[in-house]
Amino acid sequence: MIQKMLINKSRNNRESEKLLSLNMSFINFGISLGGILGGVAIKYSIQKLPLFAMSMAVLPILTNMCIRNKKE
Question: Which phi and psi angles does 11 have, rounded to 5°?
Fold first, then answer.
């Protein structure tokens, strides 16, 4: 869905290729960062892993809410 939106918003084919490439780069970066943070969380306290995972899931939601409130 995001990729389709990026293609529709781009002005030409070359721009859409760059946008899709950048999008995939950030997706891969997020996956690797999540793996690193999860590994660190497991290393220090496996009992608190569910709490850590929940906080990592809620963080982008709160950030999105804050950004939307500033726009209004």
Answer: -85, -30
Q: Give the chain's mean pLDDT.
A: 84
CB-based contact 15:37 (threshold 8 Å) = no
Contacts of 2 (CB under 8 A, 6+ apart): 23
Q: What angle do CA 40, 43, 45 make, to 5 degrees?
A: 100
The model's pTM = 0.63
Distance separating the N- and C-terminal Cα atoms of the chain: 25
Residues 56 and 37 sit within 8 Å (Cβ to Cβ): yes
For residue 21, give Cα distances in angstroms to 4, 25, 46, 47.
13, 6, 35, 38
